[in-house]
Design a protein that fits this description.
The protein is an alpha/beta fold. Helices cover 39% and strands 14% of the residues. The protein has two domains: 236 residues, 3-Layer(aba) Sandwich (Aspartate Aminotransferase, domain 2), CATH 3.40.640; 135 residues, Alpha-Beta Complex (Aspartate Aminotransferase, domain 1), CATH 3.90.1150. A seven-stranded mixed β-sheet has the order 1-9-8-5-4-2-3, with helices on both faces. Helix 2 runs parallel beside helix 8 and helix 11 crosses helix 13. The chain binds pyridoxal-5'-phosphate.
Length: 382
């Protein structure tokens, strides 16, 4: 079994070194800054701000890009709730877009249709999510958003190192946000980072995460309303160490994902979701569509339970479209009534898509075991 998070000797040495330095919080010239530089370079971005979580990174980038009270922002309904709640915190209103069944990412066509209907330009921000690590269709999404005058934040929480048309994701839109929460391909238990090529956005995000100080300013002068969302040196030490071997792990996950596709070839009950040819996935998750035949008879939970009993490592994934989450009914936030919204592909994905987590793909043996368990499950449930 591949243990996750990884207990790696090099990470341990790096962590101890930071611990013994006695500098645990962010300091000028410290490890957080070094990590920001290296992570930005790896993702071909000019600027990076390391923060406490992906959620914090989303909130601060939405704010830096001008998302305001009463504005709308478009996002897929098949994502983690933070993509939405970061904007809700600014009293902006989520507009949910359906996904493409081939990638499970925001459908560019559905987005275009929604933007066309938005005659009075209330949608100020579009948030494509690189779900599972497969890049969203950024060219079309960014072009449509620009035409509408909307900014784009890539939710790259799951997409460390993923490639879209020859470029790593994260700074292709106006900003991009990654997460280092425990399950992610790189992790320090918690953490996040914002990437951007826009200096104005960078200095704003930096200031917001640092109590509203100027990046080169004095300690007790606060020019913006800001908070403390700073990453610690201890987190950055672990992440910097992980980044050094990230390319290698990326390739291992990719190799085992391809192995899984081969093992599933011709198996009628399963259709793995594969990255389009012009992309490379980070393989944070390997999503699999289960056949209608199997689902209508047994349901997703049963298939997952049976596969796990046979040694497969699979999870059920999102149980419902985001707009059905009870949280959105909380009257305090004065959100629209989504009860009549039904996005067909999102609904179907919540019913029929299961996920293999990334750490399984770090081992050929575990990948094979999970594929075999799924195949056996389908045979025996038939
Ligand atoms: C798509 C997506 N967006 C945002 C987040 C939020 O990241 P965090 O948990 O670091 O706040 C996550 C992960 O948890 C995620 O998967």
């Amino acid at each position: 079994m591949v243990k996750w998070p990884p207990v790696n000797p090099s990470d341990e040495d790096a962590l101890l070194k930071a611990f013994r330095s006695g500098r645990w919080g962010r300091v000028p010239g410290g490890v957080v800054e070094e990590f920001e530089g290296e992570f930005a370079k790896y993702h071909e971005a000019k600027y990076a701000v390391a923060v406490t979580s992906g959620t914090a990174g989303l909130l601060l980038s939405y704010l830096a890009l001008g998302l305001n009270e009463g504005d709308q922002f478009a996002l897929p309904a098949y994502t983690f709730i933070a993509t939405a709640t970061a904007g809700v915190m600014l009293r902006a209103v989520p507009v949910f877009i359906d996904i493409d069944p081939e990638t499970l990412n925001m459908s560019a066509d559905s987005l275009k249709a929604t933007l066309e209907e938005d005659k009075d330009n209330r949608i100020k921000l579009v948030v494509p999510v690189h779900f599972s690590g497969i890049p969203a269709e950024l060219s079309e999404i960014i072009n449509a958003s620009r035409r509408h005058g909307a900014k784009v934040v890539e939710d790259a929480a799951q997409a460390h190192g993923a490639v879209y048309r020859g470029r790593r994701v994260g700074a292709i839109g106006d900003a991009g946000v990654f997460s280092f929460q425990s399950s992610k391909n790189m992790t320090a238990g918690e953490g996040g980072i914002v990437l951007t090529n826009d200096y104005e956005v960078y200095v704003k995000v930096w200031s917001y995460h640092h109590a509203g100080r100027d990046i080169n300013g004095e300690w007790y002068v606060h020019r913006l309303i800001g908070w403390n969302f700073r990453m610690t040196e201890l987190q950055a030490a672990i992440l910097l160490s992980q980044l050094k071997r990230y390319d290698e792990e990326f390739r291992v996950r990719e190799r085992n994902a391809k192995l899984l596709y081969e093992l599933m070839e011709g198996v009628e009950d399963y259709r793995p979701v594969k990255p389009p040819a012009h992309t490379s996935s980070s393989n944070h998750l390997l999503p699999i569509w289960i056949s209608e035949r199997l689902i209508s008879r047994h349901g997703k939970a049963r298939v997952v339970e049976e596969a796990r009993r046979r040694g497969g490592e699979v999870v059920e994934g999102y149980p419902m479209p985001l707009y059905r989450q009870p949280a959105f009914k909380d009257s305090y936030w004065r959100l629209p009534d989504y009860s009549r919204l039904s996005l067909p592909v999102t609904e179907d994905a919540c019913r029929r898509v299961i996920w293999i987590p990334q750490h399984v793909l770090l081992s050929e043996e575990e990948t094979r075991r999970t594929a075999e368990a799924l195949i056996k499950t389908a045979k025996e449930l038939s």
